[in-house]
Design goal:
With about 80 residues, this protein is α+β, with helices and mostly antiparallel strands. It contains 4 helices and 5 strands. Strands 1-5-4-3-2 form a 5-stranded mixed sheet. Bound molecules: protoporphyrin IX containing FE.
């Protein structure tokens, strides 16, 4: 639940940049997308471009109609601090 969200830095998020441990930031929210990678319609390689990074621009440049907040609700692990 919301009460378990972590406050994370980009340095921490950058550690999770691998296929078996992959986090991604979109609009200041941090998602653990590890279990989603194999299901991404755009392919693994495309999604991995944002692995351990802020993928906001790539995400909205590619598919602004995709509702990430509902799709990845259960993958939400935290919010970023700048
Ligand atoms: C397609 C979700 C991250 C590139 C899609 C589609 C969904 C989706 C639902 C199908 C859209 C449709 O057909 O209307 C997600 C989610 C992401 C994510 C939940 C975050 C975890 C990314 C990133 C990139 C990317 C970072 C990098 C540029 C693409 C591309 C397609 C696509 C190129 C089009 C595939 C095609 O139609 O040939 N994605 N995406 N996605 N995604 Fe993502």
């Amino acid at each position: 639940g919301v009460s378990q969200l972590q406050v994370l830095t980009m340095e921490e998020i950058a550690q999770h940049n691998k296929r078996d441990d992959c986090w991604m930031v979109v609009r200041d929210k941090v998602y653990n997308v590890t279990r989603y990678i194999d299901f991404h319609p755009g392919g693994r390689g495309q999604l991995m471009r944002a692995a351990g990074k802020d993928g906001t621009e790539l995400f909205y440049d590619t598919h602004p109609w995709v509702n990430i907040e509902t799709m990845l609700e259960k993958c939400l692990v935290g919010v970023i601090t700048r």
